[in-house]
């Protein structure tokens, strides 16, 4: 990898988190695949040689458990989902250069090679650990086969992950009060010998790696905290059949018998162990790149150069798998002497109508459902990439979708494209004979610069924004110059204005291609351009379109209100139906907001008593200047001599702040320690009654109702 700006001379590979072959795809998944697809396309518009690869994640206990429940072979079970994903992605214009799966031969061989190499290098050792065991089922209980309590946060934890609580990766034996998910009986812990990867050896390497890592800030900051807490070695084997076998030493068919009886304890019987799913899953990134190379030829794209030498590796992932990608994965790559990722961008979650996406409650927009409703994939691509920053949570509602489509795509982009091309066609049968004006050339160059900068900042919203803002400028330009008044009296001037508009229209198409590839291609064809807009580079936005083109059609259509009403009703009914089944077992993909309150209307204040809303709007930048954090109150005591003031100690992750708050009369201070709160961290320091206040606690209303979070936001996390 280089530290140069994109485009570089080295080939790039873009990957996204592997879809787990266990269920239908929904909008939460699509955000990642569409985002990575758009980013990979955007790199190509800069002239960066790029491959976009992925594959299905076939192994692990959820697949094994579900296959068992259905009485089918796990391989068949996972393959069926794999094939469905392979079909679905192109329907959203997500076009992988290669899409493999973790159970195929390429990944199996490569995984075993890499593990063997780590072993040769001395990074793997054996250790006796406590493994949950179900005596009735006569079976060890890896990962999802066991449930219990998280030792870190006390929440209910499942197997290898505290997915409802602190989100930590859990090692085998860590779950407290283990219960077997096979029989529901309490599990016992038994001693077993397993293989460990010495992640702790890579502490210095990882610290330096994170300092140089590009992408989103959450992918750098969270792992820094984990490193500070001390890295634990990582158990990389499991007692189960489904997965990639732990490799025997090269040239040996099986484990030597004396190794099995080594020492006092029971040595690891390698023939019974499979690799933990998180070992072979990221290796699929490499395997899929290798398959691509083998298909197009290494002269065209050389996977070994990318992964073993100097390629630009970019991972786009969900923020729930940051630890796997910024700690375990780079340590493995370093251990075998491979190249390391240049950028890791971790996306936020998707909420639906302001509430957590929940597959068990059917509060989700399914991929198939979206397509069945007849909406063009580019509309969803545009919504998901431009509604929030990459690491922000994005809310989806049909109302917001309608507003975005009708406002930006229909009203701004589509409207500009259609009126410009129609005017040009009717008066000039295409592009008028004139040169692009200096003003318009500079404006297009500016948009190209913005797009280039956005790619280098891993900012998809900025890429889409460069296109939409240019179309906005186009609309203003045409309005300001009123070419329809000029055609008779000032024909040269009219030709000039329309020539400019046609050029802007083409530039908007080139800029929008990563986000809305189909619509950009349709415009390309309306302009009479040959070939594919996907092959165009940003600079082509300044090349003149062909002299003649046909009558254009409108490329975007408004979404009507009754359509949205109908979609909202469908969603509501569906969620209500799922709720009736009482399926509230927490089998949710994403964090859920607490909506048990129910009586929303009852909490509404009489608006006559409320402070009027501010008329003046602020920009998003102004909001971003506020550093608002989740905190936990550690202590609270009244300040002597002050009737209303209390002195609080608030933990905000990085440090503990002393703040003064006017809540002495309004709260029982003894109740506050342990409560989460929201703190404005970059408030100017102040001194009140001789006590320094370093931050401001946020509260609502006359009673100083303290703001808090209702989900799993951790102390120190930023409010955005
Ligand atoms: Zn936890």
Give a description of the structure:
This protein is of the alpha+beta class and 720 residues long. It has a six-stranded parallel sheet, with helices on both faces. β6 (146-149) and β7 (156-158) form a beta hairpin. The longest helix is centred in the middle third of the chain and has 31 residues, at 398-428. The structure holds zinc ion (ZN). Zinc ion binds next to loops.
- What fraction of residues sit in β-strands? 15-25%
Mean pLDDT: 90
Shape: globular
Uncertain spans:
253-265, 581-608
- Neighbour order of strands in the largest sheet: 3-2-1-14-15-10
Family: Belongs to the class-I aminoacyl-tRNA synthetase family. MetG type 1 subfamily.
Subunit structure: Homodimer.
Region (Disordered): 248-268, 574-605
Enzyme class: ligase
């Amino acid at each position: 990898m280089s530290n140069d700006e994109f485009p570089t001379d080295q080939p790039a590979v873009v990957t996204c988190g592997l879809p787990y072959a266990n269920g239908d795809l929904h909008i939460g998944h699509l955000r990642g695949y569409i985002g990575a697809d758009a980013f990979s396309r955007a790199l190509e518009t800069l002239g960066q040689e790029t491959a976009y690869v992925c594959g299905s994640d076939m192994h692990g206990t959820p697949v094994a458990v579900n296959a068992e429940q259905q009485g089918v072979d796990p391989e068949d079970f996972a393959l069926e989902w794999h094939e469905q994903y392979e079909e679905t992605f192109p329907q959203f214009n997500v076009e992988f250069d290669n899409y493999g799966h973790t159970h195929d031969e390429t990944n199996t061989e490569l995984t075993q090679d890499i593990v063997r190499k780590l072993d040769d290098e001395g990074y793997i050792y054996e250790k006796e650990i406590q493994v949950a065991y179900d005596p009735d089922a006569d079976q060890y209980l890896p990962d999802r086969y066991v449930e219990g309590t998280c030792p870190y946060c006390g929440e209910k934890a499942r197997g290898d992950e505290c997915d409802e609580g602190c989100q930590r990766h859990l090692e085998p034996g860590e779950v407290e009060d283990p219960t077997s998910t096979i029989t529901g009986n309490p599990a016992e812990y038994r001693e077993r010998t397993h293989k460990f990867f010495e992640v702790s050896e890579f502490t210095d390497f990882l610290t330096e790696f994170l300092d140089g890592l590009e992408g989103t800030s959450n992918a750098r900051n969270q792992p820094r905290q984990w490193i500070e807490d001390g890295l634990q070695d990582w158990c990389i084997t499991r007692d189960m059949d489904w997965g990639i076998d732990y490799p025997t030493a090269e040239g040996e068919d099986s484990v030597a018998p004396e190794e099995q009886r080594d020492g006092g304890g029971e040595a690891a019987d390698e023939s019974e162990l499979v690799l933990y799913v998180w070992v072979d899953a990221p290796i699929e990134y490499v395997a899929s790149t290798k398959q691509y190379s083998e298909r197009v030829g290494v002269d065209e794209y050389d996977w070994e150069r990318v992964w073993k030498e100097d390629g630009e590796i970019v991972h786009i992932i969900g923020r729930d798998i940051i630890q796997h990608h910024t700690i375990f994965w780079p340590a493995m790559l370093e251990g075998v002497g491979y190249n390391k990722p240049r950028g890791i961008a971790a996306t936020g979650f998707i909420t639906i109508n302001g509430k957590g996406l929940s597959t068990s409650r059917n509060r989700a927009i399914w991929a198939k459902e979206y397509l069945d409703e007849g909406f063009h994939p580019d509309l969803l691509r545009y919504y998901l990439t431009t509604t929030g920053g990459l690491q922000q949570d994005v809310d989806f509602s049909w109302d917001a979708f309608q507003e975005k489509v009708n406002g930006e795509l229909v009203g701004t982009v589509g409207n500009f494209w259609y009126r410009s091309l129609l005017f040009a066609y009717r008066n000039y049968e295409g592009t008028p004979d004139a040169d692009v004006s200096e003003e318009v050339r500079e404006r297009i160059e500016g948009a190209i610069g913005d797009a280039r900068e956005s790619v280098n900042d891993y900012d998809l919203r900025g890429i889409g924004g460069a296109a939409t803002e240019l179309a906005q400028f186009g609309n203003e330009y045409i309005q300001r110059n009123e070419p329809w008044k000029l055609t008779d009296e000032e024909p040269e001037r009219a030709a000039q204005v329309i020539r400019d508009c046609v050029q802007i229209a083409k530039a908007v198409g080139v800029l929008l291609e990563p986000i809305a590839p189909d619509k950009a291609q349709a415009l390309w064809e309306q302009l009479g351009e040959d070939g594919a807009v996907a092959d165009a580079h940003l600079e082509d936005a300044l090349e003149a379109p062909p002299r003649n083109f046909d009558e254009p059609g409108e490329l975007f259509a408004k979404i009507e209100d009754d359509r949205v009403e109908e979609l909202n009703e469908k969603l509501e009914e569906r969620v209500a139906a799922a709720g009736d089944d009482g399926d509230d077992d927490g089998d949710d993909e994403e964090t859920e907001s607490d909506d048990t309150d129910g009586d929303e209307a009852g909490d509404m204040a009489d608006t006559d008593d409320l402070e009027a809303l501010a008329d003046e709007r602020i920009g998003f930048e102004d909001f971003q200047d506020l550093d608002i954090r989740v905190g936990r109150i550690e202590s609270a005591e009244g300040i002597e001599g002050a009737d209303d003031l209390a002195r609080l100690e608030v933990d905000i992750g990085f440090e503990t702040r002393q703040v003064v708050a006017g809540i002495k009369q309004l709260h029982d201070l003894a109740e506050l320690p342990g409560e989460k709160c929201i703190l404005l961290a970059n408030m100017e320091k102040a001194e009140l009654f001789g006590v320094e206040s370093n931050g401001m606690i946020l509260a609502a209303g006359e009673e100083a109702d303290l703001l808090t979070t209702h989900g799993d936001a951790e102390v120190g996390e930023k409010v955005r």
